[in-house]
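I keep forgetting this: the sequence line spells out the residues, with the fold written below as integer tokens. I include a record here:
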Amino acid sequence: MDSKPPSDKSSDKRRPRAPSIHLDTSAVTDHIDPHSSASSGSQDGTKLTTPAFGRAASSSSAASPASLDTLRPSTDGASDATSQKCFQLPSRESLEDLWRPLPQDEDLFTVAENPFAFSPGHLSRLLNPKSLKAFHALGGLRGIEKGLRTDAKSGLSLDEAGLTGSVSFEDATGLQLPEHPPDLSQGIQRTKTGQKMKRVTTHKETGGLYSDRKRVYGKNSLPERKSKSFLQLVWIALQDKVLILLSVAAVVSLALGLYQTFGNDEHQGARVEWVEGVAIIVAIAIVSLVGALNDWQKERQFRKLNKKNEDREVKVIRSGKPTVISIEDLLVGDVLMLEQGDVIPVDGIYIDGHNISCDESSATGESDLIKKTPAEAVMRVLEKTGPIEVKKLDPFIISGAKVLDGVGSCLVTAVGPYSSHGRTMLSLRDDSELTPLQLKLNILAGYIAKLGCTAGVLLFAVLFIEFLVRLKGSDETSEEKGQGFMRILITAITIIVVAVPEGLPLAVTLALAFATKKMTKENNLVRHLQSCETMGNATVICSDKTGTLTENIMTVVAGSLGDGSLCFAEDSVLNAIKSNDSTGAGTTETDASLFYSKFIQPSKLSSTIHEDLRVLLNQSIAINTTAFEGTEKGKAIFVGTKTETALLDWARNNFALESLEIMRSNHTVVEMYPFNSSRKCMAAVIKLSDRKYRIFVKGAPEILLAQCHKVIDLPTEGIHSSTLEQTHLDQIKGDISRFASASLRTLGLCFRDCDQWPPPRSKAHDDPSQVELSDVFREMIWIGAVGIQDPVRGGVPAAVEDCHRASVGVKMVTGDNVATATAIAKSCGLLKDGGRIMEGLEFRRLSNFEREAIVDDLRVLARSSPEDKRILVKALQSRGQIVAVTGDGTNDAPALKAADVGFSMGITGTEVAKEASDIILLDDNFSSIVKALAWGRAINDAVKKFLQFQITVNITAVMITFVSAVADENESSVLNAVQLLWVNLIMDTFAALALATDPPNDSLLDRKPEAKTAPLITLTMWKMIIGQSIYQLIVIFILHFAGPSFLHYPEDEQKTLIFNTFVFMQIFKLVNSRRIDNKLNIFEGLHKNHLFMLMATIMVAGQIIIVWFGGAAFVVTPLNGAQWGISLVLGFFSIPVGVLIRLFPDSWIRKAIETIVPRRFREKKAPRRAESYDLAAAMLDVRDDLAFFNRIRGGRMAFLCDPKFIQKRLQKSRSKSKSRRGSNASSSPVHPAVGIPGLIAASIGGLPSPDSRHGETV
């Protein structure tokens, strides 16, 4: 279509926007149509011609603000080459427009007594969108560094307190800041997009370290979300419609009672008709207060957990030394160190580094990987004349982005609510969503409430009809008739209150809150609540090896140098090698003795090898690493991954490795390639003193050996090398295999010298920053391999056994070779019952059907990549398994997301992995996963226990109230409204607290996981609910209807006895509900649940107080010893009745149901889902059928009419693909023939039309 000419845009009379350059520059270049260059003259679509870029503003510039607008790809169909604007020298008018506050952030530009050159508003112009114009106007990295009074190399001073003096904008940038009207607004608070941003003081200190920096730019934490006060929660609890209705009825009853008591002078004796109304109001208040207290405590608990979840440590440079600080202590002006896997917590400017690439999709919506350019390089490009390569210029670090590759550092320019991510998070603060179990229980509660409402309405209708019938001949006063009607109304409403299970959602919330708190103490930090529920039913755990099954305390204990002629090993390792190697190096004792004779003690290694090799090993280990030096308890340590610190400790202890800082200062690092799990190695390039370059690589031995063509042949005489022969390879691989058999993790070292960098024949030899490791990783010289010991954690074998006991499979996924993985798996107990061991490459090459066939039997996946882990998870899920998986690397994120429950490592895990996970293992220990499994089952059981208890009370309370009220001449229930509200308080709150806080016991792991389709209420639970309900109804009805004939108690004592018995049956039923299976030990773990005993004590004490002192409020009278005995004995009998019910076999009930209930009501036909149709499977069916056609010779198509022949010919091929066929799979071989024309038409239709190749350029 025709494009709109540029002149149309420039003619718009709109107010110019703040000038900036939108640096999603890949869109500028990558989205240009390939044919546009032919029609755009000689212009280059990736370059812009610019004049000299001076530092001072030129008043003579003719550039208008419109011409300095944000650089974006054209939104119409025209060629970008003709619509791009020139990046021109900013005029005074454009600078004024750049620094002019927008309505929503005008308060950020004025800071009282600002000792820095820039306000938060100035720095905010760097981003949103990314603006090179603002970057240049602020003086680039040097100007920002000076304006923030920091140093890009040494960072902030550890001694900085209050700053004296100030730096002006002009001092820092060389430009004069345009004048704007003063605005003395203070503070910052970002609400929703477009709303005004106000300043708040995030740090209230007036003195102390970094006080001015915190006052002006704030701390790296968002203002705490204002939580609801306790009174607000009480008010919310009172908004319940049923409680409102009951409150109105109670007020009317109170008014009538007060009139009867005080407005009528003719009555005799004490009359307390008003007490019932007051008691109901008090009961409503107590229910609301208790519910609000629970909500308040729950909110506080989850706030603490969220704060702990958000807290993490980052590495910064302060006073020239790497320092680890809390993320909340990051400040503007800090130099933040970036590593692969980091989630960037602040906005900043990229200082320098190696191959930093970021995923900014969460911040900008762009899915492309953005490679960062150092700020100094960007500034040099901007200030030179001629074409500007806009595609590469991106020095901006955005908060919320993920570092997917490289290492480097950035200068922090915005923190907390001033940063891009902080503003977004403030605008998106919402209440947390309900978990699946909460949603399921809410639905169930709705059904129960509807049944309760139906019972209440039916009761009201029946009693109201009786009331109307009796009105005609009644001699009661009008007040008494009104009070009688109100009693009917209140009884009906109270039934609804009792039937509505508001305690059901409370129970799961309390269970989750209690479990997450306890799980945190047991090193499981829960990020997503639903993961607790899911983990309880996990069927498979796919675990990493290093740090999870092992201790992650690594030590170099063995090694092979050069061609294998010199090896070292500790005695324990050598003994393990001997025990695993039955024949040694050969078939005779002489050969075996010769093999072991080349081993020396590690302590003698330094004096045995040549000095040049010692220097080479030190260089290889100390330079090719991302670790750094730190201190812990006054002792110098290495900070980094355990593998790298193990190598550094080995070099320091054996080869007198000097300080890393000195080592690195003596060698210029030209390029670094951080470890990547896909290539399984890392590399560093240094410049030597003779102007040559040396490349060091370390990683998986088989990967390195494949790229080596030479080997150091005499380790004791120097670093002389010779061609790597097959005999050398066999010797080296044999050594590595023996190390692996002793459960050692092997790591190879190699190097290569080259005369120039980049070396010849590399793909991007013109630009050193674009050289990939694959371009130079060849023709290496083998140095040697080391064996690193990482012992199995002490509790892991027992934890694996617990998983097997719980019918949960455990699979180990590791990057180690097969021999090492097998040895570790045996030590952990993973191979006790056999199982398959595979390499990741072999597993990856299997078809989906082959993979599903073996995945259940797979125990160890060695030499695997994160993608293999994700494929494993998907394969298991396709088999109906509920999968938990562990991960620590950035590339593990897809597997963690794909799994039903993802566990990330709290110690070694990257921030990307933690963000993708559901639970963080704070100690990286496999045993903690088993604890999470037990807690998950405990949560599900707690909800079911409460459900079993509450439904029983619902049934009995509603039935007793309904039957007794209908049978009574005065339409009054044996349990009045206040008594029922007390029962409701017991049922909803105290029982929820008691049952939801049961900790997991040993027997939880003695059963199989529940299926996803398992019902919430099992047959065993229904058996207990119905059995207990029948027992309670029989007891109450006998006491109520037959009791007066053999007990001969006064009416008030009789009713009090019934009320007391009913309550104690619920209390003992609470103890009985601690089991939801048929096991008889209901007291298991009771002594550990102190809250249960406290709640039971409160219920008993409350009932005693009510009976003795409740009087007119509860309409009770004190009972004597015999009556208390009857209540307690009948209540206690709930426990032996529960034993009898559990002894009754479930199979009898199931058989009775199958006999009585017709099959069509018992079996639900599964709905046919359209998404279950698998196109790939259909194509495979077509392939099988066409193969059948191919086998028919001579045109004997008449055979197709014979179904027996068809079945016989297709049976073999059909059996292989049976699992992939749905119910709609055709057995007719003619169907593919019918579909062939459609396939041909679709394939032809998918080709581009001839006209499209010669059409107009878009």
